[in-house]
Amino acid sequence: MKTDGKLHEECAVFGVSLTADEAAGVTYNGLLALQHRGQEGAGIAVVCENKILCHKDSGLVGEVFSGEDLENLPKGRTAVGHTRYSTTGSSTKENVGPFVTDYLTGRIAAAHNGNITNAGEIREKLRRNGLRFDATSDSEVVSALIAYCITKEQNTLSGVIQAAGLLQGAFSLVIASGRDKLIAVRDPSGFRPLCIGENETGTAVASESCALDVCGFEFARDVAPGEVVVIENGRIICQGIKFSGTGDGQGLCIFEYVYLARADSVIDGLSVYDARFNMGGVLAEECPADADIVCGVPDSGLEAAGGYSARSGIQLASGFVRNRYVGRSFIYPSQTQRDSAVRQKLNPLAANIRGRRVVLVDDSIVRGTTLEKIVKSLKGAGAKEVHMRIASPPVLHTCYYGTDIDGGDLIANRMSLDEFRNKIGADSLEYISMDGLKQACGQCALPFCTACFTGSGARAGKNGLE
After folding, report:
1. Which sequence positions are flagged as catalytic?
2. Per-residue pLDDT averaged across 326-355, rounded?
3. Mean per-residue pLDDT of the chain
């Protein structure tokens, strides 16, 4: 059960092709850097001597891979890794990636980020062709479809291209074959990020560039929407391959900039930090407040708070002390304990708050489950007024492509602005406009999917699997 009231993304992928037998350790470090994208499970599959060995389990990366577990992974040169947050399929070990699938002449390991909207139809057709499924995740369907198409095409690259053309929805993929080939694929809309880094030891592919930085790879470029990239022996051997699938015409999920991605990542030409800082600046213009200080809700509201302060001229101050050693709040068995954990994680800094009018900036309001406690804690610490400012528009619609939004949970659908403001005890509550959010993210190289805000978006059609 998630109680932080935020929108959560499905997972992260990471893959490496190196010239030295260090793939498992590098992939582990990459997954640690991507832990924010999925905290329910993790796995690493390593290619070694034309075999693929995989270790995965439920839990955080550091929990799944103890020192012994990491040491027991083979010392191969190619590996793929995955961190999972369940949106399709239950939160079990069986649904954690990567998925290793055998076919007539070999095996592959596939890690998938996104949501396949025609996965059910593909699963049933593959079942009729004799394939067995052990999990409920659409990522297992992706791996099985790729293996099926490789068997039909009798060629790894051709099989991947054919499979990618049959998938509908959001998918960023890294695939390892038993012959030390690493393949990266991004859906035609570019809904989820995927980027490539290089250094003297090889090439890495990651959901976000922060993982490349941490692992010592220099960012090279983003994988283009609808592109397949092939890496072997640490070097890109084939790129610019386009497959025949069609996107929904939307583009990159704009929530990557709002909340999902780490601030030190660069996605499709735009720094996440810059985007959030810009959101705060636009928010200050659109939604001014008469206040003494600006505070951000840690951690994803901090950059927007900085932008709000810079544009408004109101002093930026720390409003909370964050306890980074408190466990995830959803592991607590009772609501009382979960409520207590919110205060343990974010304790107001009374020395900055007392007697002051506060502009409190957060990145988004999705379910609104913790905001009331945060505002009340500021008032309890002596804040004279609390003016909530939100760096994204109201979330009004369910997500079709791999985030855990349920329409009935969305606070913007259950309460009017005034009703919610009264509920949380804020003196005012305002959101950035949709045009303002797009303006803040205007340097992105891709168009955006904004369906969770606007309701516009495509739906899946038929697939072409025979």
Report:
1. 11
2. 69
3. 89
